[in-house]
Amino acid sequence: MSKLLDYIRLSFFAFGLLLGVQIPAFVSDFGQALSAQLIEAKNAIAPFKNDAAKYFNNDLDKLIKHYKNIDDGIVNKGASNISTLYTRQQDLQIAVNRFAQSPYIFTLISGMSDVKQQVWQRFEGQIILKKDSIIAAIIAAIIIALLAELTGYLLLTGVKRSFKRLFAAQK
């Protein structure tokens, strides 16, 4: 039984290693996806920024207000769309800047769930043996092994207590 438990512990540790080595690859893919979406957002808003530079002294908000003041529903809807594009571009620029400062923490706590979801759907397991992936793998393996050990200990302790109470009640 002792050998079986050792193999189970080793399996959890190996699982943790394999999971942990994926973390840097996911973080890298997330950063690349953020950058790609920022480029797309900049390209989408560029013609309107050019118009703002040409007619409104580089003030995109004035262009949007101008479009909103035109008595045409289609142009008003266009103003709303421009505003949405501009907000998205600004949000992505902030996200890329924050990612550059601390990629792991930003990936963990950011609210960019749409980008994370896209990355997760396309993510394939990669083993990139760099220093940060080895460190992440070892940390994940230790945490998973400790959690498995603690769960097993608590489960066995609970079962022992239940059996002791059961046998004590029968006497």
In short:
The protein is 87% helix and 0% strand. It has 171 residues and is mostly helical. Helix 2 packs across helix 4.
Characteristic key phrases:
171 residues
Describe the protein in words.
This protein has about 170 residues and is an all-alpha fold. About 85% of the residues lie in helices and about 0% in strands. The protein has seven helices and no strands. It has helices at about 1-20, 25-55, 60-70, 75-100, 105-110, 115-120, 130-170. Helix 2 packs across helix 4 (about 75-100). The longest helix is centred in the last third of the chain and has 40 residues, at about 130-170. The chain is elongated, with a radius of gyration of 27 Å. The model has no long low-confidence stretch (mean pLDDT about 90).
Extended strand count: 0
> How helical, in percent, are the residues?
over 70%
Average pLDDT reading: 88
Which structural class best describes the helix and strand composition? mainly alpha
Question: What is the fold's blueprint, element by element?
Answer:
Elements lengths: L1 H19 L2 H33 L4 H10 L3 H29 L1 H7 L3 H10 L8 H40 L1
Helix pairs in contact: 1-7, 2-3, 2-4, 2-6, 3-4, 4-5
